[in-house]
## 1
Amino acid sequence: MAMYQRALCWVRRDLRLRDHTALAAATRQTREVIVVFVFDTNILRNLEDKDDRRLTFIHHSLQDMQRRLVKKGSSLLVCHGDPVLDIPRLAQDLKVQAVFTNRDYDPYARKRDRIVEQKLKISDVAFHSYMDQVVFEHPDIVTRQGEPYKVFTPYKNAWLAALRPEQLVEEKPNLKRLAQAKVFEKWSDPWSLKALGFEENDLWLKAGEEGARAAWKKFQKHMHRYHRDRDFPSRNHGTSGLSAHLRFGTISIRELVRTALTQKDEGARAWLTELIWRDFYQTILDRFSYVVRGAFRSEYDRIQWPGKPEHFEKWCRGETGYPLVDAAMRHFERTGWMHNRLRMVVASFLVKDLLIDWRWGEAWFARKLLDFDLASNNGGWQWCASTGCDAQPWFRIFNPVTQSKHFDPEGRFLRAHLPELAGFSNTHIHWPHEAPASEQEKAGCRLGRDYPTPIVDHAAQREKALKLFEGVSQTV
Ligand code: FAD
């Protein structure tokens, strides 16, 4: 194999040095590799919050990467601009012969990479992209007819059957080949978010490879209990908390799958299934990119959602009068993270109790989630709204009070995030509206004053939701 003299490794949602496919390939095939990250102005300009937590997470992760690179006598090149212009420009300035990168399946990223590749080609610079974010990409897992799977269980079975140890082998970069970037960007302080027009925000977790490794180490001790704990939001380490790390690639999916496979217990099997859902939704987004705009099952785009904008505002603020929904939404606002059970409860409530278009909720999550991932978020919302490929049937509607009793029986999550309800008994905290006046007084919480009265009646809304869906499914 001919060696390149110098190459760029362009990192995007793979902010680590360990087990990194593009970096391993680049350092195998090149004498000098420069690692570059571009704060993409096309993405930044669409962020609505100046203190968007994702930028803090990225910023901290880049700092972590920089520390590791400096130890190896190298450094990270950070730019702020449009990658379609910046990557070809850097390739020229740095006189590289190739650009290496890991594939990203978002429609925007796909288009961006196609343009970058074409531009590089004009100047005779090679563009190499690799699968790294997922274990399988399309068309690795297809039906006998060569079509992508639209139902999860057969996809999962095919995924497990196709898995070979070589797919999970650690992709070790040769860090001796990392070079110091000789060109300095005009942007004087790449380590300050202020220079990008953003502010730091608090993170509830440590970002970067260091944070990922610590979280992963902790979760490995709890993985065997995952199938029992995963649905209870107040249980410590009931789930891994790794979603933001997976989103930004501060840990390798191969490493997680390797470990889950060796543990072989029920907990590990259940957890592996969730990692497979992640691959599944990436394929759905990749092959059916229209889901970004509308329902996977397009007949559901005919639903005329009668919900009220003021109810949407109350849902966002956690003021619906339904304690589990409100606790989840307020915790979400403070942290940018939500437990999977609660994502399902609040999504179902928005769509099937407030009768609001699921895309409004999807957009709110896209704005606020630290682990926002277009494929998983869209898949999750379409599952809850019953419009997706392998979704919750439309006639199954979560009762938010029953969910609360079931998954937070002692009201621990509710008490932690709705302090005004903390004084209610375990019997009434899930639905304080039926607590006797004496209990309200004892709890120091007058309903309607200190905590909102319910904005809708679940039973009545349920009937309306069934009619809405029935109307559409009868015309199919
Ligand atoms: P764990 O339970 O430890 O799972 C391990 C990993 O598996 C997760 O980190 C995640 O990468 C993956 N995973 C778990 N569940 C799912 C799932 N249902 N679909 C796809 N991947 C999954 N996940 C995101 O990563 N980003 C999103 O934007 C996102 N939006 C969602 C929106 C809705 C409405 C719903 C119902 C789910 C959404 N999910 C999303 C899936 C899931 O809620 C989160 O991945 C999970 O809560 C993250 O916590 P964890 O890392 O502790 O998960």
Note: DSSP finds 20 helices and five strands in the chain.
## 2
Amino acid sequence: MFSGKARAYTNIALIKYWGKEDQELIIPMNNSLSLTLDAFYTETQVIFSEEISEDRFYLDNQLQDSKATVKVSRFLDLVRSKAHCNLSAVVQSQNFVPTAAGLASSASGLAALAGAASAALKLDLAPEELSRLARRGSGSACRSIYGGFAEWQKGDSDKTSHAVKIPSAGFENDLSMIFVVVNDSKKDISSRDGMQRTVETSAFYPGWLTSVPQDLAKAKKAIAEKDFVALGEVTEASALKMHGTTLAANPPFTYWSAESLQVMNLVRQIRNNGLACYFTMDAGPNVKILVERKNETALLQALNSHIATQQLVVAHAGPAIKILTEAN
Ligand code: PMV
């Protein structure tokens, strides 16, 4: 019996990943940059054992159906082949997500699975190797190996596509991200399908790709200079451009709901009134607002008269993945 356990935190991209160059290996079309957060994480234990004949996957103590289990099994196959092991496994995952729900993330889930499975089979992977492995489960998971800011460098092969930590002199600790949960039901178009349709059909996709290097450079400069306004501006611009590509896809689609637009307008209004804050969105209608930590309370107060408290979740910078031992 071989057992391993890991805790990984979710991350939100400030410069978005949108589009795959290689579907199978999950090599992206562009570099992306993220902030790992403390508010949502996944703890996963993997036990490889001779006593079972097929993989079993429990999420929040519920045995999952074959569809969910096949995804996990495929990922475990990668780890098994690296370790020359053919044992089946029991996977127990717990998502620690604030009550607002709907924010469970594949990033923390697949990063924790990669960490736990590789620890169980004693693969002893360096962070960049673990990032490569997590990438194969879900692209954004490769950034959750690191705490604070991370850049997923697209590379051009399985070997060269992984995330790295961005030095920041602790700037991430000056930031807060407030999640506005406008809808916690499952999304209609997965990020996988959405990005594929966009790459293949959107007239705006080439524009997206040419603009990413400049946005990435701006974001890295802003982090190096601890320039919140510059980071916020480029974060919001990256999200708007990514979402813009979906409108020109065929068939066109959007992840925005009427409520998302209301929240985006509210953020602009609060900003026009003098409080620096910027929004970003992913493949769903929820809005995340970046603000300086010193202004977190003021922002919550400004949001309070428009948005119910239960819809708001506050997050701060989170740590790197942790391989858990009996002691913790
Ligand atoms: O790796 P996935 O399938 O969770 O895709 C993530 C896509 C976005 O959240 C929209 C952007 C990003 O970089 O996280």
Note: The domain at 1-328 is CATH 3.30.230.10 (Ribosomal Protein S5; domain 2).
## 3
Amino acid sequence: CRVRHYKFNVVMKNTTRLCSSKPIVTVNGKFPGPTLYAREDDTVIVKVVNHVKYNVSIHWHGVRQIRTGWADGPAYITQCPLQTGQTYSYNFNITGQRGTLLWHAHILWLRATLHGAIVILPKLGVPYPFPKPDKELVVILAEWWKSDTEAVINEALKSGLAPNVSDAHTINGHPGPVPNCSSQGYTLPVEGGKTYLLRIINAALNEELFFKIAKHNLTVVEVDATYVKPLETDTIVIAPGQTTNALITAERKTGKYLITASPFMDTPIVATDNVTATATLHYSGTLASSSTTLTIPPPRNATSVSDKFTNSLRSLNSKKYPAKVPKTVDHKLLFTAGLGVNPCPTCKAGNGSRAVASMNNITFVMPTIALLQAHFFNISGVFTTDFPSNPPTVFNYTGTPPANMATKNGTKVYRLPYNATVELVLQDTGMIAPENHPIHLHGFNFFVVGRGLGNYNARKDSKSFNLVDPVERNTVGVPSGGWTAIRFRADNPGVWFLHCHLEVHTTWGLKMAFLVDNGKGPNESLLPPPSDLPKC
Ligand code: C2O
């Protein structure tokens, strides 16, 4: 194993997209940011220096951070942010993981431009469980706002209304050809006959996406840095925070083919950015002036396309990569995830109310001291451990909501003993209207054992759980008006954030944290914090 050193200078950089320029927050002046390469079992040390006016923290999304919660990154959950001028070295091991993940800012809405790929190769000499590709390429999907994203969310919080949507989606930083500007969009160069591994990442703030390439099928071999049974498809569905590795064979020999990243939102209750980002798959030897073979992306509400893809994913579950699904469960939890409205006398534009979001009817309030610090140093008054295992009131989650369902504010965690096995059913609620929620759990991978529409019915639905080869991930979409059941083992002591990866929902409070106690064994406790951990 090696130690990989990286230096991330967080700096402003004037960047032009859609014919207009604005200063954006970047790592080393790049958008998307630099790719972090490592091998399974390597140690990674990233020295982050904050040169911008915002407080900053960086999250290594999907890296398990076993016993090193101090390097996880979510601001006020595992660390206080780096203030202007401060430096912090994130120091962690990549234990037992290989594949594609992403890093991103985990404070405010800085993730909009502060993100990049993490590529973890297998240990030296260990092959992929699929044919070796000729080449590998990172494909990052994101969004672009013409205006300043911090201003967008601050304005929304003041008014109580939903924030403005982005002006475009992007593929490796580019929306596509923009008439009247010299911008051509991203070109993915291929050679006829060769096979490519695309490491596709959705880093967008607020949009699930469909990804498609004209006249080329994709074979999905990995999601969220876990191997899956090869799945051939013409369309990939990918939620913010998710990653998908897919093989593509350049079997057409020549030509140019359209690549699309288009929004998926089955029941949009607020406006969505409806613009499809495009890029070009360009065979070597093809003239730049030749015409591009087009493809039509699925309609925005193509739930059937999304369901088919999602329901087809299975863990590889081979001898070498077995799916270690917990067969018994110590903690059975049901968390509702939903949007709602709370009174807000100062919200004039919102008519005296504001949009909120909650889990089990609790709108999470960010503390001012990081939860992990409060836990480790026994600082009282920062959080309470009474996050409910079930919704406080049972109602028809996907039907007409009861009147007066204002949420309660709180900084509550759910406490788990070390190594407890957990089944968590995430139930969407239709408080304003149903919406999909890509829920991300820090510190763990989980198995997606079940998924369905309507209200979860424990007796009936648990009978059909897949405990053999369910897909293993770190971020899962809870279907609009439905539920998803996950299982995991709490084998990582610390405080771990669980939240919707649609940034607007997180901002509104769709988040909570698990507190996992230390175990009794020699390697079962949280390590002490590094000396340069930022102070609050
Ligand atoms: Cu990718 Cu808590 O986030």
Note: Residues 331-516 form a domain with the Immunoglobulin-like fold (CATH 2.60.40.420).
